Amino acid sequence: MAKPENLASFIQENKDLLKEYLETRYEIYRLKGVRTVSKTAGYLVWIIISLFLLFLIIIFGGMTLAYWLAAYFNSMIMGFGFTALIILVVFGLLAALRNPLFINPIMRSIINRNANDER
Description:
The chain has 4 helices and no strands. Helices cover 91% and strands 0% of the residues. The longest helix is centred in the middle third of the chain and has 59 residues.
């Protein structure tokens, strides 16, 4: 390859290489985006299914506890009332501790996953 005399002739000589390089970089970024979106969609579906199953477990566990307490106290009102109270206390604790139990670990997980994907 001959030495170019100036910048314009250098760009003219390497125009095809530059175009191919830019197209390749664009394709790499597009594929990284597709990978990120597909992983995120997979995690989202998994979270939705898990939450639905957890909801069912809580409902049936609560019903079982309510009927068991109702038989223990010989009163449906007391059984279901205590069960509602227990669920309310658990919900209050989860709401009070949402940052250290849920938000911070999820944020750390997302940051670590994205940092590992960049390498």
